[in-house]
Design brief:
The complex is a heterodimer of chains A (about 110) and B (about 110). With about 110 residues, chain A is mainly beta. Chain A contains no helices and eleven strands. In chain A, strands 2, 4, 5, 6, 9, 10 and 11 form a seven-stranded mixed sheet that branches. The N and C termini of chain A lie far apart (about 35 Å). In chain B, the strands form two sheets. In chain B, strands 2, 4, 5, 9, 10 and 11 form a six-stranded mixed sheet that branches. In chain B, a hairpin with a 7-residue loop joins strand 9 and strand 10. The chains are: A mainly beta (about 110), B mainly beta (about 110). Chains A and B meet through strand 5, strand 9 and strand 10 of A and strand 5 and strand 10 of B.
């Protein structure tokens, strides 16, 4: 199993540009998550999904959109990029079929908006 | 709103010494997770604690959970350089959506 994969690893965007961060998992997990990590701030939840076709906002959803058309994929869309979106983005997934289902994280995407 | 506080945020220690990282949280929960992050890398799961009094150990690390005090500890025994990393605790706020709230992390540096 590849686990959770993310592309690209690095990206530089100009202000106002748009892009999609890709996330895929091959563990047949129902739950998937997007976090951003800023220096010294821990991880903040952007959006999450409990299954194909079902998504919901997390703590910091503004400026982002998601979709979940398949169990495997959970892309994150940035519209009109702003410098405040400079961050490291992590995708994660979990089983969610019982208690204590830890989240498995992808390698991250480092995004710079200038 | 669930708040998770870790302390210390920075910890520099010598090899061979013992120390404890504390994780306090603000709401009733009996599901707490510890993760490790190496510089520039992703997060790796260390421990899953699912009930009051739960204790897990792996090598030089031991984690415990006191749900009544809303406190988890990560104890480091006889630290070695390889333990240098950032350690995060994360709390599941309850319900069925498995959303985690993370602490800010503790940057641990183990010096020879």
């Amino acid at each position: 199993n590849a686990g959770v994969t993310q592309t690209p690893k690095f990206r530089i965007l100009k202000i106002g540009q748009s892009m999609t961060l890709q996330c895929a998992q091959d563990m047949n997990h129902n739950y998937m998550y997007w976090y951003r990590q800023d220096p010294g701030m821990g991880l903040k939840l952007i959006y999450y999904s409990v299954g194909a076709g079902i998504t919901d906002k997390g703590e910091v959803p503004n400026g982002y959109n998601v979709s979940r058309s398949t169990t495997e994929d959970f892309p994150l869309r940035l519209e009109l990029a702003a410098p405040s979106q400079t961050s490291v983005y992590f995708c994660a997934s979990s089983y969610s079929t019982g208690r204590g289902d830890e989240q498995y994280f992808g390698p991250g995407t480092r995004l710079t908006v200038t | 709103e669930l708040k998770v506080e870790q302390n210390p945020l920075f910890l520099s220690m010598q090899e061979g010494k013992n120390y404890t990282i504390y994780c306090n949280y603000s709401t009733t929960s009996d599901r707490l997770y510890w993760y490790r992050q190496d510089p520039g890398k992703s997060l790796e799961s260390l421990f899953v604690l699912l009930s009051n009094g739960a204790v897990k150990q792996e090598g030089r690390l031991m984690a415990s959970l006191d749900t009544k005090a809303r406190l988890s500890t990560l104890h480091i025994t006889a630290a070695v350089h390889d333990l240098s990393a950032t350690y995060f605790c994360a709390v599941d706020g309850g319900g069925s959506n498995y959303k985690l709230t993370f602490g800010k992390g503790t940057l641990l540096t183990v010096n020879p």
